[in-house]
Amino acid sequence: MKKQVNGMEFVLGFDGGGTKTEVIAIDLQGNIVMNIEGGASNPKAITFEVAVTNLTSLIKRVFTETELQPQLCLGLCMGLAGVANEQEMQRMADAIKQFLKSIDMEIPVLIRNDAEIALMAGLGQETGIIAIAGTGSISLGLTPDGGRYRAGGWGHILGDKGSGYEIGLQTLQAVMQSYDQVKPPTLLTQKVLEMHHFESPTDLRTYIYQDHIKKQHIAEHARLCIEASAAGDAEACRIITNAAEDMANLTLALGKQHPWLDSAPIAVTGSIFKYSKLFLDTYSNRIASERTTSNIIVSQRKPAHGAAMIISSYIQR
């Protein structure tokens, strides 16, 4: 997507994950004028060096595949999964600045993590709570005094409660438990067999233990659980409801870490919130049952847009 942008000043916002990176350009009035996608840029998933290569390649593409002019770029912000502390952010910022200097661009560069740009996208401000339920999950709270608090987001082994991975894993486990007659028949069995063209649930064992099966492959089965829950399947509804309760508990835990977060506005984002009404409703009801204020906003902007908003605000201060 691009518009006529000759002679217009702009900023760039990047949303970098383990499978792809999206970049959005906005003008100083906040209008989106360009967005393209490139390769993954989570340094924990693909190494720091590959992440830098993919990010710099995407910067090059911005100026070769669109009408944007590098001399009119006023700054950029990158929100990257897998970048969690100041040392990691500074290392990435230094690498990006070095590349920009090599192409005669000396502009402000801000590095954030993916949750921070999602917060800005959801609330239009850099303070509050963002709850993300996609392949993974996390609740992050940023306070006016500069504090940064988190619950969850520890990965699929240590804890991604409420995530697509956990829902997908429980979906597959439910199929096997139903096959063993530990649990009653469930629509999940039919959906999983149709997805993989299997004849029997026992075929799952051969599939799931292959070396190439990763976290994201398990998380793909969350879609089947969402569909089955919408159709009223009892087991699917149980899985979705429990996952939403777990996600809400992560968010509520932030209020125990800092009193301001006990009444802070909440933005939610990610594929599970987006596609499962049961998940969103259960999460919202749980939050409302524990907080005197339960202002929950479903983010309508992409995280890359949030990154662009952060750098735009920074350069206009």
UniProtKB/TrEMBL annotation:
Organism: Paenibacillus albiflavus
Listed PANTHER family: N-ACETYL-D-GLUCOSAMINE KINASE (PTHR43190)
All copies of domain ATPase BadF/BadG/BcrA/BcrD type, residue ranges: 12-310
Cited InterPro entries: ATPase_BadF (IPR002731), ATPase_NBD (IPR043129), Euk-type_GlcNAc_Kinase (IPR052519)
Protein name: ATPase
